[in-house]
Every structure is written in structure tokens, then in C-alpha cells.
Amino acid sequence: MQNQLQAPPQQANPLDQLAGVTLGEPISWWPLAWGWWVLIALSLIAIGFGIRAYLRHRKRTLSMRQALQNLAGLDQHADNFMQEAHAILKGCVIAYWPKHQVASLNNQKWAHFLHDSLIAKGKQSDEQASSLSQTIASYELSLYANAEQAQKPNPEDVVSHISQWIKSATPPKQSVVKEARHV
């Protein structure tokens, strides 16, 4: 009976016979997988195109920015204010459109050009473009009127209207300039 009361012999735990877990070296992030290299290359290409587009935009708007800066710096009380303002506008126009087509424009042809360039840019309605272009063309006519007969326009209005035209019409769309060069 003593046999029956004895506890069964304990068997060895099989898990004790296993070796400890070895964690190997941590996985390195370098060298990168090919997918990361593709992503880096595409990112660099996109950044390159972005920088190129920004520099092209700065170059295209340089004449516009200079014209606005020169216009703002004019002495509005000077005797030659109107000539200077008109010269700045003509210079800005010549910087963007073919010189042989716009340098000789005057009176109604000048007004039509100003109007058409505003419409081509699409930033103003036909009525607004007509009003602005006729106003600026009338400034040109006041340059050649007799000093006694001519009523001088308000210099602030002149600066405002010319600035508005420069901001609205320049730089022109590339298709407009290409079309003007083929005419």
C-alpha cells in the first residue's frame, strides 16, 4: 500500500531542454530597398521641376515687377510724369510682345491692342477691358494735346489704371505671344 500512496515520479519538463531564444542582430535600415530608391528619385525629380517652374515664373514676371516698381517710384508732380508713365507701359508691353508689332501702335490701334491683350488673358470682362483700355489710350492722347486745351489726368488715376492693366495683362499666355509672332 505504500506504493500506492507514493507520488508518481516527476517527469522532466520538455521545455527545460530547449535552448534560449536568440535574437539575432537588429535589422538595419541601410541599404534601402529598391522601392525607397525609386521614391527618392521621383521626389528629387519633382523638386527639380518645381524649382525650374518657379525660376521660369520669376523670369517671366520680371518685366512686370520692374514696371510696377518703376511706376510706383515716379514723381507724380513732375512735368514729364505722363511721358514717363507711358514709357513704362510701352516698355513693359515691348518686353512681352514682338517689338515690331507693338512699338508703332498709337491711338485706336493702341487701344485695341490693350483691350485684346486683356481679353486674351481672360481676367476681365469685355466691358471692363474696354473701359480700361480706352482710359489708358486717352492718357496717350493727352501727351500730344496742347497744354492749354488739355485737361491733365489725375496722376493717381494714371498710376492706378496702368498698374491694373500691367497686373491683368502681363505676362501674356504663351499661345498669344506665339500667335503674335507669326502674324
Structural features, described:
There is one protein chain. The mean pLDDT is 84. The protein has nine helices and no strands. The protein is an all-alpha fold and 183 residues long. The chain is rod-shaped and about 135 Å long. The chain has helices at residues 2-5, 34-60, 62-72, 81-96, 99-102, 107-121, 126-144, 155-169, 174-182. The relative contact order is 0.11.
What's a concise summary of this model?
With 183 residues, the protein is mainly α. The chain contains nine helices and no strands.
Question: What keywords describe this structure?
Answer:
mainly alpha; 9 helices; rod-shaped
Query: What is the number of E strands?
Result: 0
H/E order of the elements? Answer: HHHHHHHHH
Classify the beta-strand content into a percent band.
under 5%
How does the overall form come out from the CA principal axes? rod-shaped
Mean pLDDT: 84
From the alpha-carbon coordinates, what is the Rg to the nearest angstrom? 38 Å
Largest sheet: none
**Low-pLDDT residue spans:** none
Distance between the termini: 124 Å
Secondary structure elements and pairings:
Elements: H1 2-5, H2 34-60, H3 62-72, H4 81-96, H5 99-102, H6 107-121, H7 126-144, H8 155-169, H9 174-182
Helix pairs in contact: 3-4, 3-8, 4-8, 6-7, 7-8
